Structure formats: C-alpha cells, structure tokens
Amino acid sequence: MRVNLPARVGRIGMVARWKPVHLGHAAVLDALVARGELALIGVGSSNRYDAENPFTPDETEAMIRRVLAGRENYRLLRIPDLDDGPGWRAMVADLLGPLDLFVTANPYVRDLLGVVYAVAHPVQLLTTERHVAVSGTMVRRAMAQGDAWRPLVPPAVAAYIEEHGLDERFRREFGAATLAPGPRPPVD
C-alpha cells in the first residue's frame, strides 16, 4: 500500500543493513533526516558477520555518521536478525517505538511492519534526480574484484573504508565467496 507522504513527520524509522553505505543509501539517509524531526536508523543484521554482512556494527555506524556529518536529528540502533518474523517485528516495534512513518524497500519487512506502522518505499522520499541505481551487492562484488567500488560510495565512506583497510579485509575474508557462481542474495 502506497502511503501519501507528508513533507515533514515527527518520527521516521528505517532498518537496513547499510553494508557498505553506498550512494543510494546516502540519498535515503539524507531524506530520512530531512523528512523527520527524529530519524531512527536501524543497523540491520547487526549480529551477522559474513559475505553479505562484512562490516561490524561499529564500522557500519561510523559510515552512517560520516554520511550524516553535521546532522544531529537521528539515532542509530542495532537491530539483530532473529530468524523469527513475528518476534523480529515485536523487537523492532519495541526498539523504535511509535513512528509516523517506517521506510523499507524489503517486501518481507514491509509486510511484517505494515501491521504496526504506515510504510513507505525509500524511493518515495527522493526526488527523481536523487535516485541512484546502486546496491550493496554491486559494491561488494566490485570490492571483491578490487576495482571500481569507490565511485559507488560517498567519498567520506570510501575514505573510511580505505583508512581502516576494510576493503582489503573484505577481499581476504569474503572475496572468493562474493564472486563464487551460484544463487545471488537479494539486492540491498
């Protein structure tokens, strides 16, 4: 169900993996803090460390903070996977509390949280010129190949990743698994 979005809301929330924060994420993060008096930003899969979740919660939060530098109307929350949809919905609703709007591109999350919150797709928050056709999967594959990932992320995120050797660690730990043939995980 498409929600008619007001220009400004009191509390807006979103849970995503943000691994790594890419240009599409940056546009959505900017829109969240611009639209809400308070943006509650959940770092999803905070309890996972694997090829699809190759950055720790601390690293992911640092990337988000760099993108939102100078903004103060947001809070970061760690949201673990529970492998239990109803339990996860209850946990998220408890952690985020009441919201005027929840934002997600994930149909499963939309269906779970649509019974608790008004839900919008992130694209609804963006003007056409802010739409960026990039995904975390694209960035991780480019990073695994050792090339062309920097233009897919904000400069501040690229600098953070390189300063901490996270691209090299990713290639060493997850590069082969990321590039292996087989079913691909959902695009994020």
Your description of this structure?
The chain is of the alpha/beta class and 188 residues long. The protein has a domain at 9-130: Rossmann fold, CATH 3.40.50.620. 40% of the residues lie in helices and 15% in strands. It is built from 7 helices and 5 strands. It has helices at residues 23-35, 57-67, 85-96, 107-113, 136-145, 155-163, 166-179, and strands at residues 9-16, 36-44, 74-79, 101-103, 119-120. It has a 5-stranded parallel beta sheet, with helices on both faces. Strand 2 (36-44), helix 2 (57-67) and strand 3 form a beta-alpha-beta unit. It is globular and about 40 Å long. The protein starts with 8 loop residues before the first strand and ends in a 9-residue tail after the last helix.
User: In the CATH classification, which architecture of the domain at 9-130 applies?
Assistant: 3-Layer(aba) Sandwich
DSSP summary: helix tally:
7
**Would you identify the regions where 5 or more consecutive residues have pLDDT less than 50?**
none
CATH third-tier fold name of the domain at 9-130: Rossmann fold
Rg calc:
16 Å
| Chain-averaged pLDDT | 94
Class by alpha and beta content: alpha/beta
Strand elements, count: 5
Q: How far do the termini sit from each other?
A: 21 Å
SSE sequence, one letter per element? EHEHEHEHEHHH
Please give the largest β-sheet.
Answer: 5 strands, parallel
Task: List the strand order in the largest sheet.
Answer: 3-2-1-4-5
Q: What overall form do the CA principal axes indicate?
A: globular
What is the CATH superfamily classification of the domain at 9-130?
HUPs
At the first level of CATH, the class of the domain at 9-130 is Alpha Beta
Helix content: 40-55%
Strand content: 5-15%
